[in-house]
Design goal:
Blueprint (H helix, E strand, L loop, with lengths): L2 H17 L1 H37 L3 E5 L5 H12 L4 E7 L1 H12 L2 H7 L9 E6 L5 H9 L4 E5 L2 H43 L1 H9 L4 H41 L9 H31 L2
Antiparallel strand pairs: 1-3, 1-4, 2-3
Helix pairs in contact: 1-9, 2-7, 2-9, 2-10, 7-10, 9-10
Length: 295
Amino acid sequence: MKLRTFGLFLRQAALSLWRNAWMSLAAAISVAVTLFILGTFVLLILNINFIANTLQSSVEIAAFLEVDAPRSEARALQERLKNFPGIADVVLVTKEEGLKTLAQQFGSEEELLKATGGVNPLPDYLRIKVQDPAQIGEIAQAVQSMPGVDEVNYGQAVVERLLAVVRWVRYLGAGIVVLLGAGSLLLLMITIRLAVYARRREINIMKYVGATDWFIRWPFLLEGFFLGLLGGALAAAAVAAGYSSLVNKISLSLVFVPLLRDGYILWYSGLGLTAGGAAIGAAGSLLAVHRFLKV
């Protein structure tokens, strides 16, 4: 395509937007509202996923060793598990350290030892972190079968419920994103189709004098592109402002809730909304004008 021809298409698109300024503004705002809802849901789902992953990463396997197991066997098992596939880290907690932890919660060590006849009844145990929380059950079973291990605990019911919630959120989030994206495309298609319908006689005349389909399509494609671009940019600005304000308020009142606070999340979401709006606008224009070109 020649630069002069592309300039002609740009002028035609700009002229159409100017002549239909109110309709163009309404279309851009409609796209902005739809993409704002889409962006809000995306950030909500990302944060829920982040919270779930944070909770998952804190889940550990506690492998309690036999009470009379020598400390050397405990350290040997620790080294063996460090090389076990799927395990990220293994920490040995001795019975003495366990007693100190209990003493901080329930009283002094002397009182606890007195209540147990002067004998520390606690076993050594291994705190095991896994690389993938989805494999925690399989790894726990493997650890349970190892010599010297008396009992394994990792909160099976809680972990399984958490994994189920994460899967549900991911599937639901993907579905919502697809539906809202389709809604944005349909909305812009309707808007562009109205503009195309108003100029259907002009399109027919251009066809009769020999204009190619793409010569007719380009101004509408650019028109939809700019409408979508504007709508996406407005949505990105609104999402960034709203999210920053909300995160600041939550950080003051619910400090224990982990949220995505890095600036990159707003940068990428804003870029995605703007580019997505432009792409949806261009695609909507092509689909809308295609019907009239077939006539």
